Amino acid sequence: MLGMYDMPGLRPAHDRFWTLIRDNLGYGPVELTRDVDAWEVWQSPDLLFAQTCGMPYRTHLQDQVQLVGTPDHGLSGCPPGHYRSVFVARTQDPRDLTELSRGVFAYNEPLSQSGWTGPLVHLEALGLCPMSALETGAHANSARAVADGLADFAALDALTWLMLKEHTKLGTALRDVDATAPTPALPYITSGTQDAAAITQAVRRAINALSPRDRNALHLLDLIEIPARDYLAIPNPSQDAAKLLNP
Questions:
Q1: Strand-pair category, 65-72 with 104-107
Q2: Is 85-181 a domain of CATH 1.10.3720.10?
Q3: Domain ranges of the chain
Q4: Global confidence as pTM
Q5: pLDDT (tens digit, 9 = 90+) per residue, 175-221?
Q6: Helices H / strands E in the chain, number of each
Q7: CA–CA distance from 168 to each of 9, 155, 179, 204 (Å)?
Q8: DSSP, res 108
């Protein structure tokens, strides 16, 4: 499963990427899994290859899966294999982050590093906390909620935000306000029963074999080895911030 960035326009490129991985590995399902709950895939003992978020890995998956590697997307302001959250507001809304934090914060889900954890940690460091929060189910939905006036601001995975600007009109409806510090990006994982080293080699070879068009579309430059301890060291929001979920 490669569902974390699998926008409709990028599905053919993801399919070709998986085919390259499978060809280099020498086995595996012919097609990517789609339209299946991510947790079911991540926790399956038969999991061969998937991508998860840092917070699910840190809070639930670390003892169930092996890290394969972390993709490097060449994101501005981030070391290789890292990403960050970008706070966005409506283009015509002149408020800064302090003022926006007094309004409604749109977030994708409470187990998202880039949509929830990282942004709240960043806000807390500034002495800020959203007055209320709106759960949307996806980064793209959070962006639309802000654009449509249902929320005042949101924090988006920097790669998702880049792709939304490339593939939708949200790039003109919204503007960058601020950004969090970089953290390790979304890792590729496999189950504990698989040969993680062989999968790592296959993925690295597949990335190197991508066509320039697919490489640019997926913003996929390299595979970085980031140790589990770096993911486990990422801070969580305080209990006070978490109360936004259950006021």
A1: unpaired
A2: no
A3: 3-73+184-228, 85-181
A4: 0.93
A5: 999 999 999 999 999 999 999 999 999 999 999 999 999 999 999 99
A6: 12, 11
A7: 10, 17, 21, 30
A8: S
